[in-house]
């Protein structure tokens, strides 16, 4: 008998409420290692809440969020630290620190979680900046950069630790269509190069679908559709179809 491959991340019947507001009502979702999953859904449908479960920023009321078969809540503090070290979270609003320069923002995860020397850190940060074509902005503060540049800084910061997993919360909000494409292209290139697992939450569809092995639609607290780009575009699922039509 062949052993079943274990998903990298698995939501098993996950419920989450805030007071009377039921946000997740039985979410089931499996994410395989090295793949790209895009989660779409209306604003307020719980996409960010779903992502936050993976990092432990939000804890499920019922059900399980499993990381390589283990509940995040049941990891030892050492295992939890290890897992967090291997992942990056690109927040919805970039979450750059205004009082830190571009260089310092990108270097931050390295100074926090590794014992690299100043010189090693400098090299790593400059390598990521070069790959993202943002050389020469070391001393600039976020307020001095354009929206597109700030996204690149946030992306460089997400990539600087060579994570196994990157969570992208609306990575293209606030950008014009050309810059959106740009960010999608960068994510795709880096995912191919580095092979990390990506979970991307977005309402920018359908251009981002090209990136994904799996597209999941969150609606009324549940994943109501899971499939490939071709499957969702075939428009055979009523809710998924209506969602996409509404966005075109
Ligand atoms: P989305 O990312 O899909 O736009 P969110 O996941 O941010 O939606 O939020 C889903 C719902 O949960 C919203 O109604 C939001 O107000 C609510 N919510 C999210 N986080 C909290 C929180 N910490 N406390 C109370 N309500 C919250
Ligand atoms: Mg959100």
Task: Detail the topology: elements first, then pairings.
Elements: E1 9-18, E2 21-31, E3 36-40, H1 47-55, E4 62-67, E5 70-71, H2 77-85, E6 87-90, H3 102-113, H4 118-131, H5 147-159, E7 165-169, H6 177-194, E8 197-201, E9 214-219, E10 222-227, H7 229-233, H8 238-247
Parallel strand pairs: 3-8, 3-9, 6-7, 7-8
Antiparallel strand pairs: 1-2, 1-4, 4-5, 9-10
The structure holds adenosine-5'-diphosphate and magnesium ion (MG).
InterPro entries: AAA+_ATPase (IPR003593), ABC_transporter-like_ATP-bd (IPR003439), ABC_transporter-like_CS (IPR017871), P-loop_NTPase (IPR027417)
Pfam family, one: ABC_tran
Protein name: Mkl ribonucleotide transport ATP-binding protein Mkl
Helix content: 25-40%
Proportion of β residues?
15-25%
Q: Please identify, by name, the CATH architecture of the domain at 9-93 and 165-245.
A: 3-Layer(aba) Sandwich
What is the third-level CATH name, the topology of the domain at 9-93 and 165-245?
Answer: Rossmann fold
Find the CATH superfamily of the domain at 9-93 and 165-245.
P-loop containing nucleotide triphosphate hydrolases
Global structural class: alpha/beta
- What is the strand arrangement across the widest sheet? 6-7-8-3-9-10
Reading the helices and strands in chain order gives EEEHEEHEHHHEHEEEHH
Kindly, what is the distance between the CA atoms of the first and last residues, rounded to a whole number of angstroms?
A: 46 Å
Radius of gyration: 18 Å
Q: What's the total count of β strands?
A: 10
Average predicted local confidence, pLDDT: 90
Report low-confidence residues grouped into runs of 5 or more: none
Small-molecule binders here are: adenosine-5'-diphosphate, magnesium ion
Largest sheet: 6 strands, mixed
* General shape: globular
CATH class of the domain at 9-93 and 165-245: Alpha Beta
GO molecular function, one term: ATP hydrolysis activity
Domain ABC transporter: 9-245
InterPro entries: AAA+_ATPase (IPR003593), ABC_transporter-like_ATP-bd (IPR003439), ABC_transporter-like_CS (IPR017871), P-loop_NTPase (IPR027417)
Keywords: ATP-binding, Nucleotide-binding, Transport
